[in-house]
Amino acid sequence: MTPNVLESIAHTRAAVSAARQAGSRIALVPTMGALHAGHARLIERARQDGQYVVVSIFVNPLQFDRPDDLERYPRTMESDLQMCASLGVDAVFAPVVGEMYPHTPTCTVHVGAVANYLCGQYRPGHFDGVATVVMKLFQIVTPDRAYFGEKDAQQLAVVRHLVRDFNLPVDIVGVKTVRESDGLALSSRNARLDQEERRLAPALYAGLLEAARLIARGETRANVVKTAAAARIRAARPLRLEYLEVVDAQNMQPVERITGRVIVAGALWVGSTRLIDNVRCDKVVLP
Amino acid sequence: MTPNVLESIAHTRAAVSAARQAGSRIALVPTMGALHAGHARLIERARQDGQYVVVSIFVNPLQFDRPDDLERYPRTMESDLQMCASLGVDAVFAPVVGEMYPHTPTCTVHVGAVANYLCGQYRPGHFDGVATVVMKLFQIVTPDRAYFGEKDAQQLAVVRHLVRDFNLPVDIVGVKTVRESDGLALSSRNARLDQEERRLAPALYAGLLEAARLIARGETRANVVKTAAAARIRAARPLRLEYLEVVDAQNMQPVERITGRVIVAGALWVGSTRLIDNVRCDKVVLP
Fold it and tell me: Using one digit for the tens of pLDDT, what is the confidence trace for B26-54?
């Protein structure tokens, strides 16, 4: 079935309202388009939950810290709509920038501590932009549930804080990262990699797995974990590692000692493409 | 009828949800308590619109820039509930601070240009705190309409920008300022004035009326208007005028020339009490 493609906020509200009147619960999968198997997993998960599934496709200028990244961000609307159709999406909300931002917004969301490290440290304003557009999408689509990938672990943490702090009546569902057979996390930005870069890109996940192995063996010193993982990533090639950090899985603050659930997260520049990935690890209680 | 007094967010959601199921539209009158005839006017207006009327009573610490002001803010819950009962309020949402802020919020609303002048200039963070709590109240109560007094003109403008920028599905209704017979705008803070201060307090409105008279006579130079109004206020007594400004009625930016609808707004310290007031004026087209 072809999804209902909606470009206006008013039509989207009307479609959602009709679905809700008909007894459906509403699911939102917010995306920036260039859909891949990771997005498909989010949509399938929403579909399984048996809801009226809305996919939003909007490349949000507010969350780009570099104009060239916004410019070069892949846009593949036609194949995106085909994927949505094949997965049984009910409605696609695909507004133009002027529909979402008819004015430069005076009111925005400010994200505090959870955005202080990792990507937040290297992309000033990025998570304010993410939180602002997610807030808008939640108000427009009024979902009962919204689905986000764990690949963007800090984004997921920011959204959870957003919901908590503003009492948003929506359940956030985190969905496991989908990977290529060599471990590379699926990302719309992978499309930018040339053949050689694509060959090098799995180094990030290899380093994160090294970190996970150390933690699984009982290592609790974050520095030891980070050094080993970074060495593994850098060993292969002269790729620029932007950060590699061990943070608390809830609040995204760096830890020195691994005493509970942590995320080991990294950002790696492969040529002019920036890739991120992470693994979640629990402190191991050794026998 | 005694209103349903609700201290928890969950109970409030349940009560609102039941009312909506029963076909009611939901009206919210957000207050910090110490209710007076100005609040009564907001409630009556909501009542006239024939809705399920929720009054929130919450002294929001996030919007106080001075600890002593928060400390001294009048709290009169018992008579507040009596007034709500007598006006036919359906539900009072009166949470404790820990219910609204179980954590120090990581995500808050940041208010830009509309908060740069007037009270925003003298009360750093005030409107971020207002916008943040209003966003939370809107998410908890999910009103179709919310009512705010025009006495707090900049607050009303901030709330309108909040609704616009985040696509909040709520209509904002501004309600005319209620005044004592000598012109003093009703305010919870008036309760703090001693007899002599109470006698002096109407000077602010007298100055604003002077400004309005000049504009009505065709004066378009904001400086001339401001000087005359300030002189009128200062003539009476050595009261400290914090600001007196002529701003655009929508975006709250100071104007040099009065070319459309403006607000003349002032803040006056009477002893240790800070009072604000404003008048709305249109440029007069002289024959």
Answer: 999 999 999 999 999 999 999 999 899 99
- Give the 3-state secondary structure of residue A144: coil
Q: What are the tokens at B275? A: 């009072």
Listed in sequence order, the residues at least 6 apart from B89 whose beta carbon sits closer than 8 Å to its beta carbon are B3, B43, B53, B54, B55
Alpha-carbon distance B247 to nearest alpha carbon in chain A (angstroms)? 17
Choose which CATH entry (3.30.1300.10, 3.40.190.10, 3.40.1440.10, 3.80.10.10) describes domain A188-279. 3.30.1300.10
b/e map of A42-54 (b: 16 or more CB within 10 Å)?
A: bbbbbbeeebbbb
Chain A CB contacts of B168 under 8 Å are 139
Q: What is the largest CA-CA distance in chain A?
A: 60
Query: What pLDDT score does B283 carry?
Result: 80
* Strand residue runs (E) in A166-260: 171-175, 240-248
d(CA A155, CA A149): 9
| Averaged pLDDT, groups of 10, chain A, 287 residues long | 92 98 97 97 95 97 94 95 97 98 97 97 97 98 98 98 98 98 97 94 97 96 97 84 97 96 96 95 78
Q: Which residues pair with B274 in a beta bridge?
A: B269
| pTM across the whole model | 0.96
The answer to whether the beta carbons of residues A107 and B155 sit under 8 Å apart is no
Cβ separation A158–B128 shorter than 8 A = no
**CA gap A221, A257 in Å, rounded:** 5
Structure-block tokens of residue B204: 């602010």
First to last CA, chain A: 54
Of the candidates B145, B139, B177, B165, which has an alpha carbon nearest to the alpha carbon of residue B263?
A: B177
Distance from CA of B179 to the nearest CA of A (A): 31
CATH number belonging to the domain at B188-280, selected among 3.30.420.10, 3.30.1300.10, 3.90.550.10, 3.40.50.2000: 3.30.1300.10
- Return phi, psi of residue B57, to 5°: -125, 105
The beta strands (E) that lie in B36-161 are given as 52-57, 91-93, 107-111, 145-149
How crowded is residue A259: how many other Cβ atoms within 10 Å of its Cβ? 10
CATH ID of A4-175, from 3.20.20.30, 3.40.50.150, 3.40.50.720, 3.40.50.620: 3.40.50.620
Contact (CB<8Å) B167/A136: yes
How many helices (H) and strands (E) are present in chain B, helices listed first?
11, 10
SS (H, E, C) B239-268: CEEEEEEEEECCCCCECCECCCEEEEEEEE
Give Cβ neighbours of residue A13 (< 8 Å, ≥ 6 apart): A140, B169
* Contact with chain B for residue A142, Cβ under 8 A: yes
Distance CA A133, CA B137 (A): 20
